[in-house]
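Take our chain:
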Amino acid sequence: MLEALWWHGVRNLVEQAFEPGSGINRLVGPNGAGKTSVLEACHVLAAGRSFRTPQLRRVVTSGKKSLWVGGQVRDRQGGVHRLGVNWEGARRSRLDGRWMEGHASVAEWLPVRVLHAGSFELLTGSPEERRRLLDWGCFHSEASYRRQWQQWRRAHEQRNAALRTGDHRAVREFERPLIEAGEKITSAREGYIESWQASTARAAAAFGFSERLDGFRLRLRVGWDRDRSLAEAIERSRASDMERGFGQVGPQRADIELRFEGRPAAEASRGEQKRLIVALTGGQAGMLEAQTGRAPVVLLDDVVSELDVDAVEGLMTGLSSYGWQVLVTAVDPVIPGLDRADSTQLFHVEHGVVSPA
């Protein structure tokens, strides 16, 4: 659970500390007040990046040269951990008073799922964001996944460097660790996809979406012809890889195939697509809790304007029943399915200042 969040140099937010409650927290205020920036600060702390821009420098307050986001979380054993992210030309991450190499050690203590306007392009956009969701789930559900992914990534980058320089011996040398780690992370991804589909169905039922999502299927496209092993696929692609200077098959080309009754989910109605994305997010959150005992923090940025009234009501009712910590932004404090008694706290956001109601 996120007990406190503080920031400096983030967008239009005034430097301050914010203490959300354990249940559903509403952040309400006019457009441009800074509501989304609060969620963005939380996401930067959790993931080391923004959900609004790929460049952290764009999150920095105009006229400033750095940002700092810190937070305090309580784990399931009652232990308290202090997390931090600093950007001053480069990102640095901090855990319990120590600077860390990379952000993974920090991310482990604050699992976050976010729904925002861009999330609803998941089905029609590029595979990159779908892979990111898949890797997030595997990272938090399987202890060895991070190590295997790092080993594969390192070998993949080294092989690509050898391909660019035409070093045939080095290309083959880096293929062995690449194939070994690549097969393991693909196996983990396939197992996760199978569980994710079942968990998505449970979330859809909790949100009242089951009938609208009947016949939904999830499938992993591994990134090469699955009739062959990864070793065989790389062997067949090597000559072309040498010409192009990069690897063309492997886990880096993976994607998630989503279908309704045998047809691509991208061809479903807009309402069905949005409900599916909400259920996928809820499914991941439910899996995290079931597999690790850690409840996620769910960030909902103006979903009231993205979903129809029935969908919002079902989502809020379902989230209330799960008991997860939720931060939801809205212009109007009255949200379908969520009366004042259901919300742990209500906060007003205006001119970059967050104030408890």
Notes: Residues 25 and 345 are 5 Å apart (CA to CA). The mean pLDDT is 93.
